Amino acid sequence: MGIFKAPRQVQAFFIFHLRVGTRLAIRKLAPVLALIFAAYFILRPEFFHELSAGFVQAGFLMTGLISTIISLSIAGMASLRVCHGLDGWIRHLPAGSPTHRRLAIVSIFMAQLPILLVLAALALYSSIKFKAPATAYLTALPLLGLASAQCVIPVKRKMITSPLAVISCILLASGHWPFAFGGFILLLITDSISGPLSPVRSRSAFHLAFKGSLLHLTITWRAIRFRIVVPYLFSLLILGATALFLSNNNPGPLLAMKAVCFGGTLSVIVFLALVSNMIVVRRPPWPWVRSLPWSTQLRILIDALFLGSHATPLLILIALMNMRAVLPIVASLPLFALFTVSVTRHAPEYRMAASGKILLAGIFAALPISLIPAISLFLLALAPFALKFAVEGEQSQKVSRWLELYHLAEGDPLSWSK
């Protein structure tokens, strides 16, 4: 029976890492589909036709570089989750270091499946429409995922294996059988010389000092992390609906500008409202922060800067749709961000949390901004008064107050009422 002991253990480890990679793939599937949907309606189908033609006609080097950059980006994000626990209890399991390394590569490969499927769909579309040979590219796509995972995995000989893995990715994604075979040989060589996993290095003193100077931003980001993808998803749906309206109705330049301005303002407002709810739930006000050497005004400005900087990708997409429409939104963003920060400080007192007031005020502000864009200059002039109002609101806030939960007592076994 001892002969079958090791294979069963490896099989259990394989299932564990497979589930880890599948969960990461499910998390990445929704934002990938949302970005494709938004890009398809914002950049128009003609752009995708030209992209497919260029993808086929650019040659093996450009095709390999583009596919490698996309795959390595997703693999790098997935490795942050997969490799985070490789130095912990998993090292004590009865498996060798090469087994742990290869199973971690499997997890990272599974996390790349959504983007690999998108690349496969693009190659199939190119082969059908432009009669381009895509068999070699499609066959090498799984190996591309493994090679990119091999590139980002932390090993002791990373200085040697990473360049070899990158070259292997480019050759595998070239779409030509000889180059793909060479990339496969390089992948085997990289796997054989990688060696054991290396522990994650401790952060440098400079990095820790930098994080300390931006502690407030770090705390806010750690509270939200990649949950911020959900607000982006809803905002992209609004921009996609706006692009769909423009493509189906073909309005004039002035009406198109106003429509993009209205849809863009709504998308920014929805983004701020959803992010504010996350901040209220995961980073509520607490007394300890007032003991730090930061003024109330500085804390308000840091939170407003956090919201405004994360709304920048939406502004870029709006600018691609209509450059004139983005200017009133940029001018109104400081007031929107400061108002969001002010409402966030008192959100536990509201029945609708923070998003209710933000959505209500934002919807009423989006219509006049789109009809009369000059109103955005008036909103920009109100930003200093909004900052003063937010500062006074936080200074008068009693963070140790008792806040009663708004829920029905019926059915609560801890309630004294009948």
Summary of the model, kept short:
The chain is mainly α. The chain has 18 helices and no strands.
Structure description:
- The structure is a single chain.
- This protein is mainly alpha-helical.
- The chain has two domains: 2-201, no CATH class; 206-395, no CATH class.
- The protein has 18 helices and no strands.
- It has helices at 5-42, 44-57, 60-82, 97-111, 113-130, 135-152, 158-172, 177-193, 205-213, 215-224, 229-249, 253-282, 296-310, 312-321, 323-345, 353-371, 375-381, 383-395.
- Helix 15 (323-345) runs parallel beside helix 17 (375-381).
- The chain is flat, with a radius of gyration of 26 Å.
- Residues 1-6 and 204-210 have low confidence and may be disordered.
